[in-house]
Amino acid sequence: MSALRSLLLLLLSLCPGPGPGPGSEAKVTRSCVETRQVLGARGYSLSLLPPALISGEHLRICPQEYTCCSSEIEQRLTWETETTFRGLVEESSSFLVHTLASWHRKFDDLFREILLSSERSLALLFHHSFGRLYSQHAPVFSGLFSRLRDYYERSGEGLDDALVDFWAQLLERFFPLLHPQYTFSPDYLFCLTRLASSADDSLKPFGDAPHRLHLQITRALVAARAFIQGLETGRDVVSETLKVPMSEGCRQAVMRLTGCPLCRGIPSLPPCRGFCLNVANGCLRSHGLDPDWGAYLDGLLFLAEKLQGSFSFELAAQSIGVRISEALMYLQENSVAVSAQVFQQCGNPQRVQGRSRRAPAPPEEVGRLWTSAGAVGAAGVPGTEERPTTPGSTSLNRLVWELRERLGRVRGFWAGLPLAVCGDPRMAADISKEAAPCWTGAGRGRYLSPVVGVSPSEQLDNPELGKEDSSTDLQTRRRRLQLRAATTRMRVAALGRDLELDDWDEDASGSGEGQHYADDWMAGAAAVAPPARLPRPPRRDVSGGKGGGVLVRHNQGRSRTGGTSVGFHTQPILILFLSALALLGPR
Fold first, then answer.
1. What is the pLDDT of residue 3?
2. May I ask which residue range the UniProt record assigns to the signal sequence (predicted)?
3. How would you classify the pairing of strands 350-351 and 438-439?
4. What angle do the packed helices 159-178 and 320-333 form, to 10 degrees?
5. CA–CA distance, 184 with 580 (Å, rounded to integer)
6. 3 state SS of 197
7. DSSP code of residue 54
């Protein structure tokens, strides 16, 4: 009998008994030593940390089993883990914000430098050609560049107004030089500019030069302005998107991911990678900018290549001096026909009286001056037949190449952001150790839940987040609309149009005039037909009676005899309406 009892005791000692549950295992095999060391190194007071495992019934986020965390420690860890997660998101995204800011600064500085270089080139060319005559009328030319810069910087009027005003002032200044034997009153000059700006183009004192300059400058400046605005919008939208606060559900999910292992007494156990991806996909999906992000980058690249090629900003700016020289030469060469038409419509001007009468300048002298301007322009300032190679064009080519190269990195940014966050060892186990035990959210083991995608339908099955936590919030929708509006503006600019101009809708909805911009515009005026309705006719008062009415002018405080600017200002209500449409973008 004693032998049988000894055999039974031996068998009982060899058979495994019932294993302890999860809580009892933690109680037997785990302590709070590691947790106290880790949190003590982070600055936590050891008096707030239990010296041994305690019951976890007070926990709100972590599993309510034996724990090393009090309620206060759990709350502090929730805040800390959220800060860490947001910091990783901003750190992973900093290169994108810096890239957009760098592109904006480089392109903006280059466009400003090209405009300034063009103004300097024109001043040197005309000062060499006209001498004192140019110095007397230099404010007309500097005023043109000032208004071009105002438009580019979004603080000025439309390009149509700037160019029409310039040609009107140029005509007021240079037409009397052809007839020094006459004196031209303000009313006569008013009639002259009104006739030159008539809708039927019956008087073209400068030939086709105004149309050609308008075509080149409008396309280049509209594209450059939309491009810079697009970069600025992208930079601001990305920066604001990355600062959106997390929802309560995401805060709790991140705490379960990285904070609860500390409360369980196993701080060295890394979270499972699939666990991290589900949390990151759900929390970051609500703040992402896809699919509008890809369309925005396509718009940037397309417009940049336009500015490098058919809408060359550098070539358009450098052609300003050439176009003005061509216009002055045309006026001088056709002065007889132009003068006859003006005298017929506006009457004969008064002759200079008595001794104050000036002798007319010899025709050969005037021809020499104006012809020399054209000759120097052809040699010194490249025309449309030859694309210049300058530091400006070289820099633009390099920047566009850099933009194209880097777009590949930023195109999949929002889709790759969860992978970048979970690549940090604080957030998930290394991908090479995926088969090793990890923190599943409930304990040590393997994460068995599937990793869901970022689409709205897939996020409905996210096991770590509720539906409301992964849905797009209102602020993100607003930022997507801003991005979409910038994309629309760039696409329209690629057609040579500006959404903010008051006549865009009228042109685009008509016979398709917006499509008249051919890419091969460097082959001369014959390659591109100028827009039929430019320059825009002046507004008239209907009470003007027979003879065309009264031209509405805004003299900006200058005397009429001093070469007043002829203003054709846009309608404020229509501008506000179109600006609102541009901000809303397509739905």
1. 52
2. 1-23
3. unpaired
4. 40
5. 45
6. coil
7. B
Q: What is the DSSP-derived secondary structure letter of residue 576?
A: H
C-alpha closest to that of 286 among 417, 197, 428, 408 = 417
Which run of H or of E encompasses 540?
Answer: strand 540-541
Evaluate the CA torsion angle 353, 358, 359, 362 in order and state its sign: negative
pTM over 0.85: no
Q: Which residues contact 382 (CB under 8 A, 6 or more apart)?
A: 315, 318, 319, 322, 388
| Cβ atoms of 275 and 439 closer than 8 Å | yes
Length of the chain: 587
Ordered by start, the domain boundaries in the chain are 74-350+393-470
* Residue 47 Rama label (left phi>0; alpha psi -120 to 50; beta): alpha
Q: Is the Cβ–Cβ distance between 536 and 167 less than 8 Å?
A: no
Phi, psi of 439 (to 5 degrees): -80, 120
In the beta sheet, which residues pair with residue 54?
Answer: 67
- Dihedral angle sign, alpha carbons of residues 106, 476, 223, 138: negative
- Residue 348: closest CA among 564, 196, 183: 183
DSSP 271: B
Q: Classify burial at 9, counting beta carbons within 10 Å of its beta carbon; exposed 0-12, middle 13-18, buried 19 or more.
A: exposed
* Distance of alpha carbon 565 from alpha carbon 583, whole angstroms: 32
**Residue whose tokens read 């060892």:** 425
351 three-class SS: strand
CA 420 distance to own-chain centroid: 26
Decide the pairing of beta strands 540-541 and 550-551.
antiparallel
3-state SS class at 350: strand
Q: Lowest mean pLDDT of 22-26, 340-344, 405-409, 460-464, name the range.
A: 22-26
* Tally of CB atoms within 10 A around 229: 19
- Percent of the chain topping pLDDT 90: 38
Beta bridge partners of 182: 351
Q: What is the pLDDT of residues 370-385, one digit of tens each?
A: 444 444 443 344 343 3
Task: Report how far residue 513's alpha carbon sits from residue 533's, in angstroms, rounded to the nearest whole number.
Answer: 10
Q: Which of 251-265, 269-283, 337-351, 536-550 has the lowest mean pLDDT?
A: 536-550
